[in-house]
Amino acid sequence: MKILRSNLTFCNFRTKQVDDFTARLLEIHQKMMAVNKKEDIRLGLHRSDYMLDSETNSLLQIELNTISISFPGLGSLVSELHRNLLIQYGKVLGLDSERIPRNWAASQFADALARAWSEYNNDRDGRIVSVVYFRAGYAPNDYPSEAEWRARLLMEQSSAIKCPSISYHLVGTKKIQQELAKPNVLERFLDNEEDIAKLRKSFAGLWSLDNQEIVKSAIEKPELFVLKPQREGGGNNIYGHDLRETLVKLQKEQGESLAAYILMQRIFPKASLTPLVRGGVCFEDLTISELGIFGGYLRNKDRVIMNNPCGYLMRTKVSSSNEGGVATGFAVLDSVYLTDEVKYIPTTHF
Ligand code: ADP
Ligand code: MG
Asked: What is the pLDDT along the chain (350 residues), one digit of tens a residue?
């Protein structure tokens, strides 16, 4: 939460001027700041996504999700499905089912919600709403009229635990991700130098569009970058030719619209030939994978009750697709198989 108090307002100020949706969220956040809204209990259900950068062989973070985290349920079921298939057919395939790590994402997230509920009800009579969990509210379409915005504000003003609170929601914006990657910013929130170095190693190149030199490089070599607006849910990123055109247009306008986007180094994972199943049909294609690590965080005032990894989500997509969403139709659910060395494992992915 330290991030929010000191950083959110300033780093999103310019974004706010050009992005109506983020502006509305920030407005709610500012209202809460103005009345010094007390939020003793904080609950975060997160997913941090990574891709394996083939050049450095390291996992680089794609983004941190803090609202409506998808697939703790189906993700863990697919791991169990793959494990069961290997229990049945592992011998024939020469694969060991124990090498698929256990994935308890669904029950661990449920446990976090239950613990938040009981924390809240410790000294209350249990007849009020204790936890508000958002399965929507992260995209402009979720607010077709003023009524939805009023509801969002009302929930924020309530004493219920919000998962996420407005500040937690905003921490998941691409703009905050880019600000955190600036020199000396992590140092403001973490004391341990080793932790800082480890975190920084997982950051890809991230830049604001104020950086003229990077904008110039991205126009020259758009294939090495991804241009991202302040949106969640897939299908919003800009690549290649469109990226160049958008940057040239934004530069011409010379206005504040540059602040609505961030630029990110494009990560290139190694592609492998994989059988995929979609709608009951199996086909083979070159694919790349994205690993998400679920995390649960629960705090009551200064007492941290839970701060754990909660399982994983593996998504595999055809390498020719820019986007990664399963629900949006770009990717399929998958599992991790641990090996002692890097080798291609011909399992089927759903
Ligand atoms: P969203 O909030 O819409 O999920 P993401 O930042 O996760 O936005 O981007 C959507 C998808 O685009 C990712 O799942 C991934 O497949 C792809 N992607 C995003 N950033 C990069 C990057 N830097 N390099 C390569 N692919 C990326
Ligand atoms: Mg994503």
From this structure: 333 444 454 445 566 656 889 999 999 999 999 999 999 999 999 999 999 999 999 999 999 999 999 999 999 999 999 999 999 999 999 999 999 999 999 999 999 999 999 999 876 776 789 999 999 999 999 999 999 999 999 999 999 999 999 999 999 999 999 999 999 999 999 999 999 999 999 999 999 999 999 999 999 999 999 999 988 888 889 999 999 999 999 988 877 788 889 999 999 999 999 988 888 888 899 999 999 999 999 999 999 999 999 999 999 999 887 776 677 667 899 999 999 876 555 555 55
Centroid of ligand 1 to alpha carbon of 261 (angstroms): 14
SS3 content of the chain, % helix, strand, coil (to 5): 40, 25, 35
pTM given for the model: 0.91
The pocket around ligand 1, CB under 6 angstroms, is made up of: 49, 62-63, 204, 226, 228, 232-234, 236-237, 264-267, 290, 323-324
Which residue's CA is minimally distant from atom 8 of ligand 1?
A: 234
- Annotated binding-site residues for ATP read 63, 174, 228-237, 239, 264-267, 290, 317, 323
Catalytic residue numbers read 47, 63, 65, 70, 174, 228, 232-233, 315
16 token code pair: 């706010």
Phi and psi angles of residue 98, each rounded to the nearest 5 degrees, phi first: -65, -15
Q: What letters, b where the CB count within 10 A reaches 16 and e where it falls short, cover 162-184?
A: bbbbbbbbbbbbbbbbbbbbeee
